[in-house]
Design a protein that fits this description.
The protein is mainly alpha-helical and 118 residues long. The chain is 48% helix and 0% strand. The protein has a single domain, classed as Dockerin domain (Type 1 dockerin domain, Orthogonal Bundle), CATH 1.10.1330.10. It has four helices and no strands. Bound molecules: calcium ion (CA) (2 copies). One calcium ion binds next to helix 3.
Length: 118
């Protein structure tokens, strides 16, 4: 009895202290925050947590920023709900072209600074 109570307390502490981390990978369904292959109510719940700031946003917003405006808010949650209810289709995250574009621009700017004779 005492052992099971101790286990319950330890499990509760671990559960409270666990941190949910959302990661968007290339090929992952947009709206599938827990990356289990389906967009459902679990993902909608995670969206709400991200939108209100309880869960940190992933660095790559591909799977959470459904309207691609650069922010994660109620609009994205509503769009996810539409996918869950079959009103909209989802697609998959592509290779993060924005990251590649930023790296290319950074390299170009570095080269331009190197040849600047002012
Ligand atoms: Ca999911
Ligand atoms: Ca958005």
């Amino acid at each position: 009895m005492i052992l099971s109570l101790l286990f319950l307390v330890i499990f509760s502490i671990l559960l409270i202290n666990s941190v949910v981390v959302i990661v968007c990978n290339p090929g992952q369904k947009i709206g599938d925050l827990n990356n289990d292959g389906i967009v459902n109510a679990t993902d909608t719940d995670l969206f709400l947590e991200v939108a209100i700031g309880n869960i940190p946003k992933p660095s790559n917003l591909c799977c959470v920023d459904l309207n691609k405006d650069g922010i994660v808010n109620a609009t994205d949650t509503i769009l996810t709900t539409r996918i869950v209810n079959g009103l909209d289709n989802t697609s998959v995250c592509e290779t993060d072209l924005k990251v590649l574009q930023d790296k290319i621009e950074e390299r170009i700017n570095t080269k331009l600074e190197e040849v600047d004779i002012n």
